[in-house]
């Protein structure tokens, strides 16, 4: 199945949620319009919400879940940490792109280096200590790559997450440490996803 490229607000409105993964998003959810759902429906909806939040296809998301399940510790938390460790997500969290979709496109067009080497795989899993930097050519270009400059100009104090460090002058960031679940700015019930895939 191809990746969904339509309006994301329609998907999240159907799920009764606001649109995550976008700078300045202020939409309110509409969960109150939904009747009481079965356990299966709740699990499915939560799985779809998280999957769309991170812009992943079903097979890709299932594979990531299975990787999380093989790790030691809480599977749901492991899953969220793996999601936050994706290169496209870190580019967005650092403020180098205005949305996750834009971050994915920029990574795919090879605008970033990781530890000095070009990486164009949005799902690339970062490790603590990895340095993510806007490539020199992409720093110097004004069009059509000004999306990076514009996104970074809109960064506000307090936008940063504690597991990342940004140097705006150098246009680079560091994935300092694996996040704790409470530090991840995604409101979801990942345990429902574990229950869904454990059926």
Structural overview:
This protein is an alpha+beta fold. The chain has two domains: 8-83 and 185-197, Orthogonal Bundle (Ribosomal Protein S4 Delta 41, Chain A, domain 1); 87-175, Structural Genomics Hypothetical 15.5 Kd Protein In mrcA-pckA Intergenic Region, Chain A, CATH 3.10.290. Helix content is 41%, strand content 9%. Helix 3 packs across helix 4, helix 4 crosses helix 9 (190-197) and helix 5 crosses helix 6. The protein starts with 7 loop residues before the first helix and ends with a helix.
What is the CATH topology classification name of the largest domain?
Answer: Ribosomal Protein S4 Delta 41, Chain A, domain 1
The rough form would be described as: globular
Q: How confident is the prediction overall: mean pLDDT? A: 86
> How much of the sequence is in beta strands?
5-15%
Number of E strands: 5
Query: What Rg is obtained from the alpha carbons, in whole angstroms?
Result: 17 Å
The CATH H-level superfamily of the largest domain is Ribosomal protein S4/S9, N-terminal domain
Domain count, please report it.
2
CATH architecture of the largest domain: Orthogonal Bundle
String of helices and strands: HHHHHHEEEHHEEH
Low-confidence parts lasting 5 or more residues at pLDDT below 50?
24-32
Within the largest sheet, what's the order of strands? 2-1-3-5-4
Report how far the terminal alpha carbons are from each other.
23 Å
Secondary-structure-derived class: alpha+beta
Mind summarizing the main beta sheet?
Answer: 5 strands, antiparallel
Number of helices: 9
CATH class of the largest domain: Mainly Alpha
Helix content: 40-55%
């Amino acid at each position: 199945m191809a990746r969904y490229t339509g309006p994301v607000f329609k998907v999240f409105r159907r799920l009764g949620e606001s649109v995550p993964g976008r700078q300045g998003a202020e939409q309110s959810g509409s969960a109150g319009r939904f009747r009481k759902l079965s356990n299966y429906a709740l699990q499915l909806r939560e799985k779809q919400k998280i999957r769309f939040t991170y812009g992943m296809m079903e097979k890709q998301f299932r594979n990531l879940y299975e990787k999380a399940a093989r790790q030691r510790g809480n599977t749901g938390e492991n899953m969220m940490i793996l999601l936050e460790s994706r290169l496209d997500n870190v580019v967005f969290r650092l403020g180098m792109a205005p949305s996750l979709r834009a971050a994915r496109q920029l990574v795919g067009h090879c605008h970033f280096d990781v530890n000095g080497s070009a990486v164009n795989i949005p799902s690339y899993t970062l490790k603590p200590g990895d340095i993510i930097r806007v490539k020199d050519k992409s720093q110097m270009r004004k069009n059509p790559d000004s999306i990076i400059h514009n996104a970074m100009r809109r960064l506000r104090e307090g936008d940063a997450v504690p597991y990342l460090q940004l140097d705006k002058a150098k246009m680079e960031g560091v994935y300092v440490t694996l996040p704790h679940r409470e530090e991840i700015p995604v409101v979801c019930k990942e345990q429902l996803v574990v229950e869904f895939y454990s059926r």
